[in-house]
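TEACHING EXERCISE
Course module: macromolecular assemblies
Task: Read the component lines below, then compare them to the predicted structure of the full complex.
Student: A.B.
Group: 4
Components provided:
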Amino acid sequence: MGAADSASTLRTKRSRAASRSLQDWIFDTIVYLLIGIITIVTLYPFLNVLAISFNDSVDTVRGGVTIYPRKFTLENYKQIFSYSSLLTGFKISVYRTLAGTVAGLVSGSMVAYTLARTDFQGRKFISTFLAITMYVSGGLIPGFILIKNLDMINTFAVYILPGLVSAFNIFVIRSFIDGLPFALQESAKIDGANDFTIYWRIILPLCKPALATVALFLAVGQWNSWFDTYLYNGSNDALTTLQYELMKVLQSTTTNANNMRGGNMTELMAQVSPDSVKMAITIVATVPILVVYPFLQKYFVKGMTLGAVKS
Amino acid sequence: MKAITLKNRTGSGLNHKPQRWKVFKNQKYLYLMSIPFVIWVFVFQYLPLWGWTMAFQNYKPGKSFFEQKWVGLEHFQMLFRDDHFYLVLRNTLAMSVMGLVAGFVFPVLFALLLNEVRVQAMKRFVQTVSYLPHFVSWVVAAGIVTKMLSTDGGAVNAVLMSLNLIDEPIQFMSKGHLFWGLVTVADVWKETGWNAIIYLAAISGIGPELYEAARVDGASRLKQIWHITLPGIRSTIIVLLIMSIGHLVGIGFEKQFLLGNHMVKDYSEVLDLYALNYGLSMGRYSFGTAINIFNSMISLILLFVANGMFKKFANESIM
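Instructor-supplied answer key:
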C-alpha cells in the first residue's frame, strides 16, 4: 500500500511539475514581452531624438528617421554652438549646477550632523521647524514678492539662495549619519576635537554615499530647472539658463511664435531652426545628467529608500 | 502617571537652568552650524507665509505693510464668484486624482514585473533604463512627448496607423478632452521606474524561504506574487499611498505649462497656472495670493486626512 501510494504521488508530482514548467514558460514569456515593451517605450524616444539630432536637417523633414541617422552630419551641433544665447545659457547652467550643488551639500550636511547628535539641545525644535517646510509653502506669488522685496530679481543669486536649505536632503543625510557608529565621535571628543572638527574630519568623509545621493538630487534639480529663470530672469539675456532657452525654442513650435515669451533673438532662431537643431539642443540639455546617473545608481537607490522610510 | 513625569520634568528643568546654559556653551559649535540655516529657512520658507496677508489687502508693491489697504475677504469672494475658478479647480482635481491612481498602480506593477525577471544583468539594465526619464527635465520630457505625438511622423501615430487602428493621425496636442490623459501618461512614462525603487527594495527584503515553501506546495508564480510578494510589500504600499494623498494637490504645474497650449486651455489650466496668469502676470498680487492660499489649504486638509488614515493603519504618525 505504501509503495503504491508513493508511486501515485510521484506520478501526480511529475505531471504537476510538467504542467508547472509549461506554466512557467508562458509566465516567463509574458514577463519578458512586457519588460521588452516597457524598455522600448522608455528608450525609443531618446534614441529617436539622438538620431534626428545627427541627421541632416533638410533630410529630417522627409520624416521616417527612427533610431539611426539617415544622412549623418554634425552640422546641427555646429549651428547651435554658434547661437550666443545658447552658449551663455549653457555656461550659466553649469555655474548654477556647480555652485548650487556645493552650497547645498555643505549646508545640508552641516545641519544634518547637528540633528544627528542626540545630545544637541536644539535638535527637536530644528527638526520640526524644517519638517514643516516639507508640507506647507507660501505659494507662487508670496514667494515672488519676497524675492522682489529682497531685490533678487535679475541676479544669479536667485538660482542658489532660495532653495539652499532643503529639509528632504537634510533628512536623507541625517538618517545616514544615524547609522554610523557613535564610538568614532566619542573617541574624537576625548582627543579634544570640537564639534566642527568632528563634522569636517570624521563625519563628512564617512558620509560619501549619502553625499553622492544628495549631490545627484541637487545637481539634477539645478540643471533641470527653468521656471525660476522664466519668473525672475527671463528678460535678462546674460542670466538665462539652457533649459529656459530650450523651453523657448520648443514652445515656439506648439504656440507658433507666441510673442508673450522671450526676446526677438530666440524667436527668430525658433522660426529658422528645423527639427534637427531642436533635437540637438535637447541632447545638449540632457546628456550631462545622463552620463552621471548610472554611476551613482547604487547610492541613490539606498538614499531614496532611507529618505522615504524616515520622512 | 503622565502628570507625575510631567511634573518631574518641569521640576528638574527649573533646577538645571544653570546647567542648560552650560550645555548651550558646550554646544556652541552645533548652534553655530545650524542656527544660520534655521534663519535661512525662516526667511525663504516662513516669510512667504506672512505674505498671505496680501490676500486680505489691496496689495501695492512699494508701499509698506502699514500703508496697504485692507479689504477683508473681498478677493476670496471674487475668486469664488469667478466661473473660471471652478473650471480650473475641476482640472486640478481631475489631473491630481488621475495622477494619484496611475502613479500608485504602475510603480507597483512594474516592481512586481521586474522582480520576476530572473536574468540579473537584464534586470539591472531595465532598471537603469527605467530611471532615465526621471532625470530629464520636464522641458525635455514635454519636447519628447510632443515629438512622439506629432501628426507628421510622430511614433505613436505611426504605430497606430500601421496597426490600422486609425485612418488618419490624431492631433493629440490640440484635443482638450485628451489633455488629462496625456498628462497622466507623460507622468507615468517619466516617473514609474523611479517610484518603483522603494517597492523593489521592499520586495528584496522578503525572505526567500517563503517562496521556497510555496514552490514545494506547488504554488504557481502568479499565486506566489499574490500570496507572498504583495502581502510582503503591503505596508510599504499603504504608507506610500497615504503619503501621496497628502501631496495630492501639490501636483505642480510644469507639465500643464509645457504641454498645454491655447487650444486646450480649458483642460490644462490648474490652480497654480491660474494664479500665474490671472494674478502675477496681471499684477493682481492679492488675487493671486488668495488662489495660492486656497491651494495650500486644500493640501493641508488632505495632509491631515492622510495623517489620520496613517495613524489608524499603522498606529504611527507621519509628522
